[in-house]
Amino acid sequence: AQSVTQPDIHITVSEGASLELRCNYSYGATPYLFWYVQSPGQGLQLLLKYFSGDTLVQGIKGFEAEFKRSQSSFNLRKPSVHWSDAAEYFCAGRPSGGYQKVTFGTGTKLQVIP
Amino acid sequence: EPEVTQTPSHQVTQMGQEVILRCVPISNHLYFYWYRQILGQKVEFLVSFYNNEISEKSEIFDDQFSVERPDGSNFTLKIRSTKLEDSAMYFCASSEKSGLNEKLFFGSGTQLSVL
Fold first, then answer.
1. pLDDT, tens digit, for every residue of A41-78?
2. What is the Rg, in whole angstroms, of the alpha carbon atoms belonging to chain A?
3. Of A55, A97, B40, B107, whose CB neighbour count within 10 A is largest?
4. Pairwise CB contact (< 8 Å): A44 & B93
5. What is the distance in angstroms between the Cα of A51 and the nearest Cα belonging to chain B?
């Protein structure tokens, strides 16, 4: 089935440390890929998206993600994590072209410790 | 930034009762969606709505579910006879258009608890 997978349910990092959240996709052709963040009590906010072109995508709040076709991955990175980054992060994807619904991964909960 | 508003933030109901979850999408958006997230599980697509009709629905969206845009501003999800397994966080989303530049704006969700 066409989907995205987030292998890490929960990750803990120290404030100031680097972060990488994993996402793998299974689509036939190059999909459209997204990262969303959900802070406690908040809705889902789009961090960044990849449609085509440059495989390194810059997003809001200092996040970036790299599309790697050879690894079917779209990992989210941040060089230095802040305490306010503690939240749940969702990778999402959809097939390219026309209208297609977005499907979400199971999410990775990020804990930031001092 | 404009936002999608959902009410109520929490809804508790008895099994078998009808519930209506309300959403006010962003005013110039044309595409509307409902997603849900059962505790500990992934966010699941329920239904999309455009031009006053359902454009796509998932297998979850059975006859117990219905959506409506009653007055040009609200977008509602009705569950006719709730079941225990309907307990979840329900997210409304809207987008200006569909296709390549689609960006979904999500509301903060309604936590539905069916007792």
1. 777 888 998 988 889 999 999 999 999 999 999 999 99
2. 14
3. B107
4. yes
5. 8
